[in-house]
Design goal:
single chain, alpha/beta, eight-stranded mixed beta sheet, two-stranded antiparallel sheet, 8 helices
Protein backbone atom coordinates (compact mmCIF):
# COMPACT_ATOMS: atom_id res chain seq x y z
CA UNK A 1 0.00 0.00 0.00
CA UNK A 2 1.31 3.46 -0.84
CA UNK A 3 2.49 5.36 2.22
CA UNK A 4 0.64 8.57 2.99
CA UNK A 5 2.65 11.72 2.37
CA UNK A 6 1.79 12.73 5.94
CA UNK A 7 3.38 9.65 7.47
CA UNK A 8 6.42 10.42 9.64
CA UNK A 9 9.79 9.88 8.03
CA UNK A 10 12.10 7.36 9.65
CA UNK A 11 15.80 6.76 9.89
CA UNK A 12 17.61 3.40 10.14
CA UNK A 13 16.36 1.46 13.14
CA UNK A 14 12.76 2.55 12.68
CA UNK A 15 13.02 5.70 14.82
CA UNK A 16 11.21 8.87 13.71
CA UNK A 17 13.55 11.13 11.81
CA UNK A 18 14.31 14.59 13.26
CA UNK A 19 13.41 15.82 9.79
CA UNK A 20 9.87 14.46 10.05
CA UNK A 21 8.20 17.82 10.78
CA UNK A 22 10.58 20.20 8.99
CA UNK A 23 9.25 22.43 6.23
CA UNK A 24 11.53 21.18 3.47
CA UNK A 25 10.87 21.90 -0.20
CA UNK A 26 12.80 21.53 -3.43
CA UNK A 27 14.00 24.36 -5.64
CA UNK A 28 13.68 24.00 -9.43
CA UNK A 29 17.31 22.85 -9.56
CA UNK A 30 16.53 20.02 -7.15
CA UNK A 31 18.33 21.45 -4.12
CA UNK A 32 16.56 21.37 -0.77
CA UNK A 33 15.68 24.39 1.31
CA UNK A 34 13.72 25.04 4.49
CA UNK A 35 10.70 27.26 3.92
CA UNK A 36 10.92 28.63 7.48
CA UNK A 37 13.76 30.85 6.25
CA UNK A 38 11.26 32.69 4.06
CA UNK A 39 8.74 33.56 6.75
CA UNK A 40 10.41 36.39 8.66
CA UNK A 41 12.85 39.20 7.93
CA UNK A 42 16.28 38.93 9.59
CA UNK A 43 17.30 41.37 12.31
CA UNK A 44 18.17 44.77 10.80
CA UNK A 45 21.64 44.61 12.36
CA UNK A 46 22.53 41.76 10.01
CA UNK A 47 23.73 44.24 7.42
CA UNK A 48 25.66 41.65 5.40
CA UNK A 49 22.31 40.01 4.63
CA UNK A 50 19.73 42.80 4.58
CA UNK A 51 21.79 45.74 3.22
CA UNK A 52 25.04 44.35 1.75
CA UNK A 53 25.75 47.58 -0.14
CA UNK A 54 25.83 49.66 3.04
CA UNK A 55 28.96 51.22 4.50
CA UNK A 56 28.60 49.13 7.67
CA UNK A 57 28.43 45.92 5.64
CA UNK A 58 31.69 46.99 4.04
CA UNK A 59 33.32 46.81 7.49
CA UNK A 60 32.47 43.11 7.64
CA UNK A 61 33.80 42.54 4.14
CA UNK A 62 37.04 44.15 5.31
CA UNK A 63 37.08 41.77 8.26
CA UNK A 64 36.57 38.80 5.93
CA UNK A 65 39.40 39.99 3.68
CA UNK A 66 41.76 40.27 6.65
CA UNK A 67 40.96 36.68 7.61
CA UNK A 68 41.44 35.58 4.01
CA UNK A 69 44.90 37.12 4.13
CA UNK A 70 45.65 35.38 7.42
CA UNK A 71 44.78 32.08 5.77
CA UNK A 72 47.69 32.52 3.34
CA UNK A 73 50.12 31.94 6.21
CA UNK A 74 48.55 28.79 7.65
CA UNK A 75 45.43 26.71 8.26
CA UNK A 76 42.43 28.94 8.88
CA UNK A 77 38.99 27.55 8.18
CA UNK A 78 37.05 27.11 11.43
CA UNK A 79 36.76 30.45 13.24
CA UNK A 80 34.96 30.87 16.57
CA UNK A 81 33.42 34.24 17.45
CA UNK A 82 33.34 34.90 21.18
CA UNK A 83 33.32 37.78 23.68
CA UNK A 84 34.13 38.37 27.34
CA UNK A 85 30.50 38.81 28.41
CA UNK A 86 26.88 38.97 27.29
CA UNK A 87 25.82 41.89 25.11
CA UNK A 88 29.11 42.54 23.33
CA UNK A 89 27.66 41.73 19.90
CA UNK A 90 29.28 38.37 19.15
CA UNK A 91 26.21 36.78 17.52
CA UNK A 92 25.56 39.65 15.12
CA UNK A 93 29.28 39.70 14.35
CA UNK A 94 29.31 35.95 13.63
CA UNK A 95 26.30 36.18 11.30
CA UNK A 96 27.58 39.29 9.53
CA UNK A 97 31.00 37.73 9.03
CA UNK A 98 29.46 34.57 7.59
CA UNK A 99 27.28 36.75 5.36
CA UNK A 100 30.33 38.70 4.18
CA UNK A 101 32.17 35.51 3.22
CA UNK A 102 29.03 34.23 1.47
CA UNK A 103 28.86 37.28 -0.82
CA UNK A 104 31.58 35.78 -3.02
CA UNK A 105 29.98 33.84 -5.91
CA UNK A 106 30.51 30.12 -5.60
CA UNK A 107 31.63 30.28 -1.99
CA UNK A 108 30.61 27.62 0.52
CA UNK A 109 30.09 29.05 4.01
CA UNK A 110 28.66 27.36 7.11
CA UNK A 111 27.39 29.25 10.17
CA UNK A 112 26.97 27.11 13.30
CA UNK A 113 25.26 28.07 16.58
CA UNK A 114 27.42 26.64 19.37
CA UNK A 115 26.22 28.98 22.12
CA UNK A 116 24.06 26.17 23.41
CA UNK A 117 23.03 27.79 26.69
CA UNK A 118 21.45 30.68 24.78
CA UNK A 119 21.24 29.74 21.09
CA UNK A 120 20.10 32.82 19.19
CA UNK A 121 21.31 32.54 15.59
CA UNK A 122 17.90 31.28 14.46
CA UNK A 123 16.13 34.18 16.16
CA UNK A 124 18.38 36.78 14.56
CA UNK A 125 17.84 35.21 11.16
CA UNK A 126 14.08 35.20 11.63
CA UNK A 127 13.62 31.43 11.55
CA UNK A 128 12.22 28.91 13.99
CA UNK A 129 14.99 27.07 15.82
CA UNK A 130 12.70 24.04 16.19
CA UNK A 131 11.82 23.92 12.49
CA UNK A 132 14.21 21.06 11.86
CA UNK A 133 17.14 19.18 13.35
CA UNK A 134 20.16 21.13 14.54
CA UNK A 135 23.49 20.65 16.20
CA UNK A 136 22.32 18.90 19.35
CA UNK A 137 20.20 16.49 17.28
CA UNK A 138 23.22 15.55 15.15
CA UNK A 139 25.34 14.97 18.27
CA UNK A 140 22.76 12.68 19.86
CA UNK A 141 21.75 10.89 16.63
CA UNK A 142 25.05 9.70 15.21
CA UNK A 143 23.39 8.49 12.01
CA UNK A 144 22.24 12.05 11.26
CA UNK A 145 24.85 13.54 8.90
CA UNK A 146 25.88 17.16 8.78
CA UNK A 147 24.15 17.67 5.41
CA UNK A 148 20.77 16.99 7.05
CA UNK A 149 21.17 19.65 9.74
CA UNK A 150 22.92 22.30 7.63
CA UNK A 151 19.98 24.26 6.21
CA UNK A 152 20.51 26.29 3.05
CA UNK A 153 19.95 29.97 3.78
CA UNK A 154 21.16 31.05 0.37
CA UNK A 155 23.10 29.59 -2.53
CA UNK A 156 26.38 30.20 -0.68
CA UNK A 157 25.41 30.16 3.01
CA UNK A 158 24.19 27.26 5.15
CA UNK A 159 23.19 27.40 8.81
CA UNK A 160 23.23 24.86 11.64
CA UNK A 161 20.92 25.99 14.45
CA UNK A 162 21.07 24.83 18.06
CA UNK A 163 18.58 22.02 17.54
CA UNK A 164 15.77 20.54 19.56
CA UNK A 165 17.25 17.61 21.48
CA UNK A 166 17.82 18.35 25.16
CA UNK A 167 21.42 17.64 26.12
CA UNK A 168 23.62 19.53 28.62
CA UNK A 169 25.77 22.04 26.69
CA UNK A 170 29.06 20.83 28.14
CA UNK A 171 28.22 17.24 27.22
CA UNK A 172 27.46 18.27 23.67
CA UNK A 173 30.56 20.43 23.23
CA UNK A 174 33.01 17.84 24.53
CA UNK A 175 31.47 15.00 22.52
CA UNK A 176 33.74 13.27 19.96
CA UNK A 177 30.68 13.36 17.72
CA UNK A 178 30.97 17.16 17.53
CA UNK A 179 34.59 16.80 16.50
CA UNK A 180 33.44 14.47 13.72
CA UNK A 181 30.83 16.99 12.55
CA UNK A 182 33.45 19.75 12.42
CA UNK A 183 35.70 17.48 10.38
CA UNK A 184 32.79 16.87 8.00
CA UNK A 185 32.37 20.62 7.71
CA UNK A 186 36.05 21.06 6.79
CA UNK A 187 35.51 18.81 3.78
CA UNK A 188 32.28 20.48 2.66
CA UNK A 189 32.81 24.21 3.29
CA UNK A 190 35.48 26.83 2.70
CA UNK A 191 34.68 28.74 5.89
CA UNK A 192 32.98 27.54 9.09
CA UNK A 193 31.97 30.36 11.44
CA UNK A 194 30.98 29.38 14.99
CA UNK A 195 28.91 31.55 17.32
CA UNK A 196 30.14 30.45 20.75
CA UNK A 197 29.40 31.34 24.35
CA UNK A 198 30.91 34.35 26.19
CA UNK A 199 34.26 33.29 27.63
CA UNK A 200 33.97 34.65 31.14
CA UNK A 201 30.29 34.00 31.81
CA UNK A 202 30.04 30.48 30.35
CA UNK A 203 33.44 29.27 29.11
CA UNK A 204 31.97 26.24 27.32
CA UNK A 205 33.68 27.21 24.08
CA UNK A 206 37.13 26.54 25.56
CA UNK A 207 36.39 22.82 25.13
CA UNK A 208 36.38 23.50 21.37
CA UNK A 209 39.82 25.10 21.32
CA UNK A 210 41.66 22.03 20.05
CA UNK A 211 39.18 21.53 17.17
CA UNK A 212 39.15 25.01 15.68
CA UNK A 213 41.73 27.24 14.05
CA UNK A 214 41.23 30.45 15.97
CA UNK A 215 39.08 32.82 18.01
CA UNK A 216 37.94 36.33 17.15
CA UNK A 217 37.21 38.32 20.31
CA UNK A 218 34.32 40.78 20.12
CA UNK A 219 34.64 43.83 22.37
CA UNK A 220 31.93 46.46 22.72
CA UNK A 221 32.92 50.10 23.13
CA UNK A 222 31.62 51.63 26.37
CA UNK A 223 30.32 48.20 27.49
CA UNK A 224 33.03 45.56 27.86
CA UNK A 225 34.99 46.03 31.08
CA UNK A 226 38.78 45.85 31.08
CA UNK A 227 38.69 43.30 33.88
CA UNK A 228 36.46 40.90 31.93
CA UNK A 229 38.49 41.42 28.76
CA UNK A 230 41.72 40.61 30.61
CA UNK A 231 40.14 37.50 32.14
CA UNK A 232 38.90 36.37 28.73
CA UNK A 233 42.32 36.88 27.12
CA UNK A 234 44.03 34.91 29.87
CA UNK A 235 41.75 31.95 29.23
CA UNK A 236 42.66 31.57 25.54
CA UNK A 237 45.83 30.03 24.16
CA UNK A 238 47.60 33.10 22.67
CA UNK A 239 48.32 31.34 19.38
CA UNK A 240 44.58 30.76 18.91
CA UNK A 241 43.58 34.42 19.19
CA UNK A 242 43.27 35.92 15.72
CA UNK A 243 42.39 39.41 16.88
CA UNK A 244 39.60 41.67 18.07
CA UNK A 245 36.42 43.13 16.65
CA UNK A 246 35.40 46.46 18.20
CA UNK A 247 31.68 47.24 18.06
CA UNK A 248 30.29 50.74 18.39
CA UNK A 249 33.60 52.57 17.96
CA UNK A 250 32.49 56.00 16.71
CA UNK A 251 36.04 56.92 15.69
CA UNK A 252 35.75 54.48 12.80
CA UNK A 253 32.35 55.34 11.38
CA UNK A 254 30.73 58.30 13.07
CA UNK A 255 27.36 58.00 11.33
CA UNK A 256 26.80 54.43 12.48
CA UNK A 257 26.63 53.02 15.96
CA UNK A 258 27.42 49.46 14.97
CA UNK A 259 30.81 48.88 13.35
CA UNK A 260 33.42 46.17 13.24
CA UNK A 261 37.02 45.68 12.31
CA UNK A 262 39.83 43.28 13.13
CA UNK A 263 42.91 44.35 15.02
CA UNK A 264 45.67 41.85 15.58
CA UNK A 265 46.74 41.19 19.13
CA UNK A 266 50.16 42.61 19.84
CA UNK A 267 52.80 40.03 20.70
Amino acid sequence: MKQSSNAPATIPGGRPSPLADSRVDKRPDGSLYDRTFERFRPDERLVSLVSPASLVAEQYRTLSLVLEQRRQTGTLQIVAITSPSVGDGKTTTAINLAGAFAQSPGSRVLLMDLDLRHPSVAGYLGIRDNAGPGLRDAVVHEDLPLKEVAKRYSATLSVVTGGRTQIPPHECLKSPRLQHLLQEARHEYEWIILDTSPLVMTPDCLTLEKWLDGFVMVVSAHHTSRILLEEALNSIEPSKLLGFVFNGDERLLSTYSYTAYLQARSS
